[in-house]
Amino acid sequence: MNFKVYVLAVSAFVVGMVELIIGGILPIISEDLGVSVGAAGQLITIFALVFAVSGPVLLSLTSKYERKYLYLIALTIFFFANIGAFLSPNYAILVFFRVITAMSASLIIVLSLTIAPKIVKPEYKSRAIGIITMGVSSALVLGVPLGVLIGEAFGWRILFLIIAFMTLIAALVIMKFLDPIKPEQVSTVREQLRSLRHVKLSTAHIVTLLVLAGHYTFYAYFAEFLNVTMQVEPFWVSVAFFVFGISAVSGGGIGGWVTDRIGPERTVIIFIILFFFVLAFIHLQPSQSCFSQLPLLFGEC
Questions:
Q1: Closest-CA residue to 42 (of 113, 95, 100)
Q2: 208 and 170 in a common domain
Q3: Are residues 87 and 155 both part of a single domain?
Q4: Is pLDDT larger for residue 282 or for residue 158?
Q5: What is the mean pLDDT of the chain?
Q6: How far apart (Å, rounded) are the C-alpha atoms in residues 136 and 140?
Q7: Most buried among 81, 90, 181, 254, using CB within 10 Å?
Q8: Whole domain around residue 258: which residue ranges?
Q9: pTM to 2 decimals?
């Protein structure tokens, strides 16, 4: 496998850190900036909305630019946005830099997924894409738990400085080793929206939207839930996020295994039902008795 794919995966890991780390340090940000936990949670909502909308739009608008140059531009913006988050004096400024971070992050992920299969042999294309997605998953498994520990020890701002430093390293490596890549024609935003006319495709999007909304709504306040409702110590909050991440990654493999045996339709229905009961379990059993099972169950679904 071309080592350049792993460099792109590091960028994906860093982006995953920025996207997911807020959930683990939400109480710290809330206290430091003097806002409610709910308001601090909007940092995740805003990031997700901007990320979702700007990805296809920016890819379409930048379709004529050489890919390596565009990637470096996106990393540069991402770097300065994280420096801005580190220096943010108040909540409003932090929100602004979260928007800029989300826009550049969406372009970095899309470019990583499109560049990776182009720089490997044809038989390794699927594996290259898998390595990029593994970069994001690794942020959930390793980055977030470590981030929670670092945030508790040194404050939330240092995390954005670390992320900025990692971004700089990734940019320098890409600048040196990645060859220029000619742009290719991509679907316009209008063409992408037109595809939603297909009932099956639009239904799949709606189901995915609802499931992920439930998933990340709870994930956003996971640390607060553990701290306040379950009275869990900071170290065990980090452990819970680690178990959650491991479960999320293994859940993808389990989902693929089940799909191969009973088909995608049955798999989706079964996992949605399981997801429903897990959320109900959390609501009915908000105590330390379910603490050891909570991240495992929720992460798997």
A1: 95
A2: no
A3: yes
A4: 158
A5: 80
A6: 7
A7: 81
A8: 198-300
A9: 0.79
